[in-house]
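Appendix B. Extra example for self-study. Work through it before the problem class; the solution is given directly after the inputs so you can check yourself.
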Amino acid sequence: MASATDLPPIVGEVAIPAVKAARSRGGREGRTRLSAPLTGLLWLVVGIYALPLLWFILSSFKPGSELFSYPLSMFPREWTFQGFFDAWERVDFARYFLNTATVALVTTALTVFFSACTGYALAKYNNKGTRLFFVCILATTMLPTEVILNPTFTVIRDLGLYNSLAGIIVPSVLTATGVFMFRQFFLTVPDDLLHSARIDGASELAIFFRIMLPLSRPILFTLAIFSFQWRWNDYIWPLIVLNDPKSYTLQVALRSIVGAENIDWPVLLGASVISILPLVLVFAVFQKYVLNADVNAGLKD
Amino acid sequence: MANPTVSPMAAPEVLSPVPVRTKSQQRRRNRYVIAPLILIGINVVLFLVFFVWPGALGLIYSFTDYRGVGKLHFIGLANFQKLFADSTFYAALSRTFLYTVLSVPLVYVSSLGVAALLVSKAVRGRTAAKVVIFLPWLISPIVVGVIWKWMFGQDFGFVNFVISTLGGSPVQWSSNGNLALMVVIFAAAWGGTAFNMLLFIAALKNIPEALLEAAELDGANAWQRFRNVTLPGIAPTSFMVILLSTIHAMKEFAMIQALTNGGPGTENTLIVQYIYKTGFEQSKVGYASAASMVLMVVLLAIALIQLRFNRKKG
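Solution. Structure tokens for the complete assembly:
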């Protein structure tokens, strides 16, 4: 189960493993001794984390009668896609996918762009105004929007955004984590780069768009994936803003199945698994940006 | 703000020999005032419209009997008086505290523990393990709720099946308030580990190897190395994780709605759910806003206490 990165380099780097081995005979004995138990412990933990999801997904392939018949078995005795078909028929997935994807993509694009702008301004224009706004942004992480649920609803209604996807998108664009991630990144970019661009006669906005924004590509991707996940899974704002079932997002639609008097488990299992798939696909493609994300960049000051 | 860079406002002033405002100075003013204004403009507007405005409205509502439509009638402190006499409000608030106090340490320990295993060079298959443990992060709180409802089902749940296979009698998880809360806490830890784990992995990687080796040479055992080198090294991240997961726990809504819907009865109705129910389902907007103000004060107090605590330690 060792992954590629854990294998010792074989070609062309003969000397390096030797040095490593020598070192580990010296001060690092403990590590080699601990290797097996620690690996075992990690994979036990992995098993614990995987179990609920595995059980859930495998259950979604069981026919309705098998879901509730003792003794339960891990794997379906009879594999079926009926739950998925029923879910697809009962739940208007095409519509909910489209609504959710619209919200997630548009919000993400806006969030990434405005977070980059704001983060850059906070990092490189250090004046009273930007400092004040930085404190304001900090406050939004301490005070979640949930504490102003009712008045925000009034604001959205008064702005004419009620029951529209824009009503979910616009309030979510300002994201403290996104701003912090970019601010922290731009702090690490040397000021000399800025100065020399200025001496060369570049305008401030040109410096941002042509030099700084391209430089921040890794942060950009990371935030894009995080933001997409947040918005895809958002529940409370769509619940409040959307009234017409036709404009529901996936999560609100799912919740209406869970909230039913008698839960139709085969449909719910199928629908839930279908709802997870898009994000799993996104994650599979952009996995390295997520797992190697220095999320800390946004958090330590 | 720990910004070591020289303020760009100051730099050009030093260079200009004449204190008269010239054309080029005007241009510099544009540079250092107009450019940042354009860059942060939209977010400032969003902040004013979606934080400051509703915040002010909420404060005003909390002194009225507003029901979502019609004129505002000011009723002074009546909402707050009613709130502090309302046993369901107290129940929701204290249940939220209990939930927070129990779930934050579990999230902290699980994410730090997993992160420590994942950075340990002695462990095989770290990348694959990371991917698996990260999966729950992709799942929406609604589905996390559904998954754990399914795991802890009364007659057909996996957990009860294991218990009865081992010879025990099935437990009625959702009809006992404390057991239901326990399931919620497990679900929260399961869904909340991945993000915090990333924070801890980054922090752990930042601890200089030499420091740990030096401690080892000095005869420090694993626990002593963890206690005296690792823990202080990750203190800022620990602080962030505790603060963020506390706030996250205080505003838990979606997952608990799907998992228990606040039940059994209303026993596990947490504060955001209480605000949602009173404000949107019963249209007592003024009253719900008063409850929101109390929650806001509580959250601010928590944040300030933790900030103070962190500053003292650092």
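Self-check: Confidence is low (pLDDT under 50) at residues 1-29, 297-301 of chain A. If your reasoning did not lead you there, revisit section 3.
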